[in-house]
Every structure is written in C-alpha cells, then in structure tokens.
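User: Some background: our group keeps a shared notebook of sequences we're curious about, and every so often someone picks one and asks for a predicted structure to add to the entry. Today it's my turn. The entry only has the sequence so far, pasted here. Could you supply the structure so I can complete it?
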Amino acid sequence: MEHEKNADLRGVPCLLMRGGTSRGPFFLEADLPADRALRDRILLAALGSPDKRQIDGLGGAHALTSKAGIVRRSARDGVDLDFLFAQLRPDTDTVDTSANCGNMLAAVVPFALERGLVPVQGDTTTVRVLTLNTDMQCDITVQTRGGKVRYDGDARIDGVPGGAAPIAINFLDTAGSVCASLLPTGQVRDRLAVDDAFIDVTCIDNGMPMVLLRASDLGRGGDETVDQLNADGGLKAKLEGLRLRAGHLMGLGDVGAKNYPKMCLLAPPRHGGSIGTRCFIPHTCHDAIGVLAAVTVATACVLAGSVAHALAEVPEGLAPTISVEHPSGEFSVALGLDPAAPGRVVRAALLRTARLIMRGEVMVPATLWPGAAA
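Assistant: Of course. Here's the predicted structure to add to the notebook entry:
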C-alpha cells in the first residue's frame, strides 16, 4: 500500500503470527531501525504499550500476546537464522530482550519461509536457529509439502484450539541460558525465608531462569485455577519477595523490573502426568506454561535432590518423556539423559504449532522514525 510521504503514520512490514500459545508481530531485522532505543520505541508503538488494553496497537492486553520477533539470516557458521525475541508488557514501556520464548520460537521458521529467508527442502524443512537473547541454538522442523509452509494438520497443543501442522523443536544447548549455569546458586536446593519460616526452592536455568517451590509450602494445593491465583494478593506478594531474593542468589542482580526468574508452584500430578505446575510470568499466573519453562521443570524432575524430583513421577530409562501438567492441560518434553550421568540432560525436544494470522504493515507515528524512507 502506498502512503504519502507527509503522512503522519508510517507502515512497518510485519507478519502477525501465533507461535505455540503466544502471539505477536514478526519483523525482518532490516525493516526496523538499527538503533536499539529507536527500535524499542517502534515496537512499543506497534504493540500499543503502555496501555493495559493495548487498544492502540497489535497487543492482546496480556503478557502472552505482548511479544515480538525479529529475524535475519545468520552469519554464524552452521546456523541458518538469527532470532531476537522481545517481551513487552501491556502497561509499561519496557522491551525486554534478555530471555528466550520457546513459544514464539515455533513461528520463526514459518516466518522465514514466508519471507524467503530460507529455501524449502522437501516435504519437511529443518532449519538451525540461533536465539540471540541467550546464544542458544536449536533445530526446528516444519511441514513444507507442496513447496510451501503448511499450517493445517492434526497436531494439538493445550491452550490452542483445534489442530495444526506439527513443528518439532530440538534444543541443542539450553543449560545456563541466562544464568551462569544450570544451577546458578551452585546447589540443587536453597532455603529462603518467607514470613517466619524457611522453604526449600530449586533455582534452575535450562532455557528459562526459574525458582521452583512446593505449593504446599505456601499453603496452596497447586491445583487452583488461574483466576484464583491471580486474585490471591497475599500469595503473589510472597512470591515476589522470594523472586527478588532468588534473583541475587542466581547472579541476576535486582530483578524487580525483569521478566525472570519465573516462579513456579509444584505439586504431585493429578491427571496422569509427571508433575503439576502453576507458573507466574512473573507476576501473573500463566494459563499454561512456557516452552522453556516446561523444559526447565522437566529437567528438575530428573535431578536428584531438587524440589521437583521428590514430587514427580518420572518414567524409567535414558529417554523419558516428562508430562508437565498446567492449568489448561499438559506439555510433554522428551528428554535425553547422559548414560554416564543419568541426571544430566543432554537433549530436550518438544512439539509446538504455529500459524500465520495476518500479513501487511503495522502503522506507527511517523514522528517516531523521522529519518526512515517514506
């Protein structure tokens, strides 16, 4: 669509895509400003933040739909695509690119195929993607029968209606994605003060920095609804206090303005899975669970001594599938364990889906980017 050069709105090409249980616009890096501060202002305007309803942008008034992806061809040997994930919030002017999002990751290769960044390989196309946020690599396989990315199929993931074509994500190295190591405190368990007592927590990062704790230690069952937990001001205040203290223990410093570490209440499984979860991202209870949060919880389930290990029901063998129960269903993570050290995870694979929702331009105020070509 042509726009007059003196128009007060400027179009930025993008595709609006669902990735897993998240959603947001995807951009080619070349279509955004190179200056980070200016780029962030464009992203805020595109999503409509700060505004709790995001009424003036593409955001969906929720952390899961206040996200964006930026993609480019990679210059690194052995890597096809670079992906930068941006987490925005409905009611603040922050753009956080320090952590990953495994759900949005599922849409990277479909976006790249739509924009011609990578070629179709056959009935399936496997692409190696580097997540710039944490220097993490993964191989992503999508369906491309007929020479085009396919979105229709029978694969189902909890939290998304209907079926879609499966997208397989094989993470190559997730330990210590943001923190310095898998167990950033150097211990499989730590004790943190809450009120007049102490509770055990596991601080862990296998793709997502997380603080895992037993729901029962805070007087909860771990099977509460999302609405119940979001209305529980006392619980949320305790969790935030614990999160702030854990952030320093994990080498993350002051995490008050950060989206991590995520807090996760654990409970025994109730629906035939391996572990029950209620995750906060970080102040709102997640309707499901994030991809990399699920990988991290699954890892803790096989880690002797962790708070998850004592609650989990884990299949035997070196290739267990851990079923992580969450408020809207379950999330299966296929782990590969090191034969020489069975508690060490060497592979984590999972299935997601994605869909192209809209293609075009998102309109932002022209005054935000006065030097851009009309």
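Suggested note for the entry: Helices lie at 36-47, 102-105, 108-114, 226-230, 233-249, 291-301. The first strand starts at residue 9 and ends at 19.
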